[in-house]
Design brief:
By secondary structure, the protein is mainly alpha-helical. Helix content is 75%, strand content 0%. Helix 7 runs parallel beside helix 9.
């Protein structure tokens, strides 16, 4: 964790490493889901019905299919989303946004090869399209191809993207490489671009912990909880700070709450066992 980190017990250090690994794997899922985080308004039956009316009035306009496909994607209706993106691309084979949107659906359906092909097609048409760089970067990161992922996030940032996901995801790679100062800088930029998402606060907090800055880490984990109190990772991260401070009672409560939210969240289970003397 570096020379500046304070001395901690082996159990707590192991807990930090476990939590860091869980953070990276968890945020891969969250950050990688992009458009597919369920948006009840945009994916609602009412909104889809309205978009269908627009398509009926303009059946040869590819934009209508692209927008409705995105709404289907947010609602989790991936096959209908694919059909709409396919139609949009039949009408306009150079519709790079539809390629990137279709790639995201394919990623969510587990068809990574098709997703990569579509991201490449989007970037071939528009080499400055930040959404496609970020999407392809997440695809590479989930496959463990960190150098390629890093290059894509870098390219999006060099293209002056204002999308916080580029900074957040690059921060995760810096963190995986133990370059925590750079990770903190990227997480902070992501927060400045969108302060309502808990993920970069959790990410930054983990890097603060790795540098021995428990106070700033604790503040970030608490902010993550305030933004969304239903994420097990945030409560387990908070618990780890309590554990490092020697407050086992509060640590146990936070670990227990994390397990209530996600009974399979192993860092919380291991942490609870430590503070209760079971490890």
């Amino acid at each position: 964790m570096g020379d500046s980190a304070p001395r901690v017990t082996r159990a707590a250090a192991a807990g930090l490493l476990l939590l860091g690994a869980a953070l990276l794997s968890g945020c891969q899922t969250d950050a990688g889901s992009d458009m597919m985080k369920v948006d009840r308004a945009q994916g609602s039956d009412q909104n889809i019905a309205s978009l269908t009316s627009v398509i009926s009035a303009n059946p040869n306009d590819p934009e209508g299919y692209n927008v409705r496909g995105s709404a289907y994607g947010r609602a989790g209706e991936f096959r209908r989303a694919l059909a709409d993106f396919n139609r949009a691309l039949e009408l306009n084979p150079r519709f790079y946004q539809a390629y990137a949107n279709r790639a995201l659906v394919e990623r969510n359906m587990g068809d990574q090869a098709s997703a990569l092909k579509d991201y490449n097609a989007a970037l071939q048409i528009n080499p400055r399209y930040d959404v496609a760089y970020i999407g392809r970067g997440n695809l590479y990161r989930q496959a463990g191809r960190l150098d390629q992922a890093f290059a894509d996030f870098n390219q999006a940032i060099q293209n002056e993207t204002t999308d916080p996901r580029a900074y957040h995801n690059r921060g995760l790679i810096y963190q995986a490489r133990k370059q925590h100062n750079q990770a903190i800088e990227d997480f902070s930029t992501a927060i400045s671009l969108s302060s309502t998402s808990p993920e970069p606060y959790n990410g930054r907090g983990i890097s603060y912990l790795a540098l021995g800055d428990d106070d700033n880490a604790f503040s970030d984990f608490n902010t993550a909880i305030n933004l969304n109190g239903n994420i097990a990772e945030s409560w387990a991260n908070q618990a780890l700070v309590y554990e490092r401070r020697g407050d086992k009672a509060k640590a146990a409560r936070s670990y227990s709450h994390a397990l209530q939210l996600d009974p399979k969240y192993e860092p919380a289970r291991a942490g609870l066992a430590r503070v209760k003397g079971g490890a």
